[in-house]
Amino acid sequence: MDAILLQLLNGLDKGSAYALIALGLTLIFGTLGVVNFAHGALFMIGAFCAVTMQRFLTLSYETIDETKKDFLGNPLKVSSTYVESWFGPNIGSTIIDWAVPIAIVMAVPVMIAIGFVMERGLIKHFYKRPHADQILVTFGLAIVLQEIIKYFYGANPIPTPAPDMFRGSFDFGVLLGFDPNAIIYPYWRLVYFAFSAIIIGAVFAFLQFTTFGMVVRAGMADRETVGLLGINIDKRFTIMFGIAAAVAGLAGVMYAPINSPNYHMGMDFLVLSFVVVVVGGMGSLPGAVLAGFMLGILESFASMNEVKDLLPGIDQIIIYVVAIIILLTRPRGLMGRKGVMEE
């Protein structure tokens, strides 16, 4: 039972990342009708926002400390961070320790700006083009962004630690009546799941309860009619593209301590996230979230040794097997609108 609960937690962790990325993909497809293969790159850029913030906060300068000598009796050079010199050693070290959460403040405007530039500068020219053209141009854009990150940050993963208070593990089993140390789970993964739930809830609340969101949902259902009412729906859809980029970026920022950022992490998540979108139903926001968590949990259980002993390699293909089964029996996906992907 404890192994099952541990895999369930792992599945919710993976599913959180899948659901956040798939949510942004579905927002873009549902509003603009664009298959955006550059969305994984936005997730990657978000992770490197955390890396950038960590490097910025740890910028340092050297001073001569006359009280410290080397073996020859010469005064030593001491490296000090600017943040600690400005705010004092205690507050400064705390700010550095919380670099990843602080990066959220930087990531939101950066990702929205990148989303605006992508949509206005490139993607708007492909609205009426076939999906194959959209896939090719956005995939090419993803490769360009990936290579830019590789040029400035290198090819190796960059460790980006979580704050000290979240670096340990939580004895989850004790809360459920199990023996101590039966179900140990990292604090930051629990934080990531909670953060994902908040972001997903905020996006749905924004679309459901705000006038802007209601207009966007109406535009997703019938773009021409909303336009005839005198509403500039294109402008609102551009803003939604920026919001979708911000959602992907925030997912990347908070994922940085879980998986050290590297230049190809966006591609690693992109294919799986597209499978999630298709399984959930193209254009269906609830379907994207449901499929994200469902496939994350299935992948986690498929990685158990007992399952892999029976079906070697099943953990690598389980998501695609489920996708094939669902699309053969229900081409529009779990919660897709009738007629979508069924022609």
Notes on the structure:
The protein is mainly α and 343 residues long. It has a single domain, classed as ABC transporter involved in vitamin B12 uptake, BtuC (Orthogonal Bundle), CATH 1.10.3470. It is 68% helix and 7% strand. The chain has helices spanning 2-32, 39-57, 82-87, 89-97, 99-121, 131-153, 172-175, 187-209, 211-221, 223-228, 233-255, 265-280, 285-302, 305-310, 314-329, and strands at 60-69, 75-81, 169-171, 184-186. Strands 1-2 form a two-stranded antiparallel ribbon. Strands 3-4 form a two-stranded antiparallel ribbon. The two termini are 44 Å apart. The model has no long low-confidence stretch (mean pLDDT 85). Its main location: membrane. It is found in: Cell membrane. InterPro entries: ABC_transp_permease (IPR001851), BCAA_transport_permease (IPR052157).
